Amino acid sequence: MALLLLEQMADRAVAADEIxxxxxxxxxxRSGLWTWALELxxxxxxxxxxxxxxxxxxxxxxxxxxxxxxxxxxxxxxxxEVRLFADEISYSAAMSACEKNRQWKQALGLLQEMPCxxxxxxxxxxxxxxxxxxKRGRWQESLGVLSSMSRxxxxxxxxxxxxxxxxxxxxxxxxxxxxxxxxMSEVAVxxxxxxxxxxxxxxxxxxxxxxAFSLLRQMQEAxxxxxxxxxxxxxxxxxxxxxxxxxxxxxxxLEASLLFSR
Length: 262
Known about the structure:
Radius of gyration: 24 Å
Number of helices: 15
Number of strands: 0
Organism: Polarella glacialis (Dinoflagellate)
Domain PROP1-like PPR: 18-175
Largest sheet: none
PPR repeats: 17-51, 87-121, 122-156
Keywords: Repeat
Structural class: mainly alpha
CATH architecture of the largest domain: Alpha Horseshoe
Protein name: PROP1-like PPR domain-containing protein
Helix content: over 70%
Low-confidence stretches: 258-262
CATH superfamily of the largest domain: Tetratricopeptide repeat domain
């Protein structure tokens, strides 16, 4: 609708202003039309209009959805060149674009750049950086960002912990995964099924069947409901070390829970 309005204004020789263009760019952003959003941004100077922060942030947001980190990074640099100061929204969108495309170095670089510009990273910014590191198995960097959240007095949330635990899972750091899981309860973060499953999986892969079984029982007692993934990981761990009675018991338990859920 906003794009159609712009075309109708042009057909009637009615000059569009920044508000009209920003509305059209935002409409493209909501629809994920990144090429159209960028085209409108580029068209503004031709119409003697100056793109503002709203214009750039809308295009940055659609870059995030479309997983175009290099375009997002270029737009950030462009904002600096035209002396248009990026804000937390600008950086969070660019970092999320990097995260979705596994560009962990770029995501970390943007996170470190923010304080230099007197911008305060929030849970979204930190979470994007941790998740970008997790996708590449950079567990040390994930933990480093998680620690920096506390130093910056930003409370880590479940998403941040889940990503860090997953990074440890991917690299076989089962001790650290357990440490993070316990850390979640210490800072009153809700222990999620995702966090439990990642910790159970890494314990199971390293034949820590007793720990995996203990986590499963802890999970069942907590608000996070055990699922098929949780049980199967523990069953595999027990089966590997020859605990067939426990394996059979868990299989019966899993079958009963699946029948109950139908």
